[in-house]
Amino acid sequence: MLRRILEISRVDIYNTFTDRAAIMINIAVPLAISIIIGAALGGGSSDISIQDASVGIVNQDDGNFGAMYTCLMVQDLDPAIRDTCATGFGVGGEDDAGDSGLSEFIDGEIVSNIIRGRQMVDEGELDVLLIIPRDYSDAIFTGEQAELEVYYNPGSGVPVDVARTIIQGIADRMNTSALAGAVIPEYVSDNFDDIPAEQQFNLIGRIQQETFTRNAQEVIALERKDIEGEAEEFVALQYFAPSMAIFFMTFGMAAGAISILEDMRDWTMQRIITTPTTRPAYMAGKTGGTYISGLFQMGILIAATLLVNRFIFNDDVAVWGSDIAAIVLLVLSVVAAATGLGMVIASLGRNSQQVQSVSTILLITLATVGGTFIPVDDVAVINQLRKLTLNHWAIDGFTELSMRNGSLPDVIDNIAILFVMAAITLGVAIYLFNQREDFKGA
Question: Are 258 and 264 in contact (CB under 8 A)?
């Protein structure tokens, strides 16, 4: 019996891979589409660079709090100012030429007056103008309301948002320093009343200075983390190679299942089961052949897209991920689910022509809902319906492995769900075929 099952599967696989039209649809077309989309979206890695925000500073304040903005955001400083920044705030100095660490985001410069600064923003020379008013530091020290004026060009987009976020971060740290400055003298006088007043005064000054310096440095660390974060590389093929491969593989699996109806139409199945081959053995052979053809198809596409990414796009990123076991299990499960889906579609049609038309519409619809052509994570209703499709669970699994460097534990749910889909659809297909009069009477 096993030999007959294997022979039916072998013939089915042979017919699939000697059919030029099938090879074009199942392998050449998805590969070509993946390459075209990959090239259109930049080929390999597509890192997004954010232009530095050009910020002009008009500092009318004579105190430390106003000077802090200049020290943090302007890199090209006079030596005297640079040394003051290093001594007062712990940023800049001879070794790093006044670079506070924000130079990756801010291109700051000192502007002589407000009128000139506004003109520079209006003419596009600056994205943002920061105006620090007189007595700004005094207002912070005395607990009064201290206001900054930020004049910017809304059309500058992301650079303006970056600059405003950094300025807000510096202002928040200054408020912390001001609060500490108000609390520290009372704390010292209450807890160190046994030391002379002059030493108390010096201690208060050192604590306030240390608090101010630390807050200046924490602004840099905070903003670099919030703005830069952890770089996430996007490679177009990491999404579209799996999505296109799965999409066209489902058509291949449907075509394999439809061949059962064609065998029934041509009386091929009837002739086979007149030999010592049972109807279950015939179905097992056809299903097995379709499944193995799908595995070959996915394997070829995986290898081809890896070669394309390496030698055409000159990128060695893992298009399908780096966990071999997870990739293999995902392929096994998604092909099984697609085989079952194809069998259900075939079992519901009266003839092969009808099933071909219905399957085309159904598979394109499922692919669209499942996010094959564009991600649908943020699309209301569809982002829930997609969970009913094998496309979603397979694409989600492969992108987890590739884009997020996941491993087998991260996609084990996807694999399990796809195998469950396969079991359910194959069971339904067998039941429906057994209910058909033309199948039972064959």
Answer: no
| Spatial distance between the Cα atoms of 372 and 390, rounded to a whole number of angstroms | 11
Question: What is the H or E stretch that residue 132 is in?
Answer: strand 128-132
Top pLDDT among 108 and 184 is at: 108
Q: Which stretch of DSSP H or E encloses residue 120? A: helix 114-122
Size (the chain), residues: 442
Q: Which residue has the tokens 């094998």?
A: 390
Parallel, antiparallel or unpaired: strands 53-59 and 128-132: parallel
Boundaries of every domain in the chain? 2-46+233-440, 53-228
> By three-state DSSP, how is residue 78 classified?
coil
Under 8 Å between Cβ of 337 and 422: yes
Lowest pLDDT segment from 125-134, 158-167, 318-327: 158-167
Distance between CA atoms of 37 and 345, rounded to whole angstroms?
Answer: 30
For residues 348-371, average pLDDT: 90
Q: State what percent of residues in the chain have pLDDT above 90.
A: 28
For residue 197, the model assigns a pLDDT of 65
Phi and psi at 154, nearest 5°, equal: -60, -25
Beta bridge partner(s), residue 57: 110, 130
Contact of 59 with 68, CB cutoff 8 Å: no
Amino acid of residue 263: D
Q: Given a cut of 70, is residue 215 above it in pLDDT?
A: no
Highest mean pLDDT among 26-30, 106-110, 339-343: 339-343
- Output the pLDDT for position 279: 84
298, 27 contact by CB (below 8 A): no
- 397-409 confidence digits (pLDDT tens): 999 999 888 999 9
Compute the chain's Rg from CA coordinates.
34
Q: φ, ψ for residue 381 (rounded to 5)?
A: 70, -55
> Which class in CATH covers the domain with range 53-228?
alpha beta
Query: Cα–Cα distance between 113 and 106 in angstroms, integer?
Result: 20
- For 127, which DSSP code? S
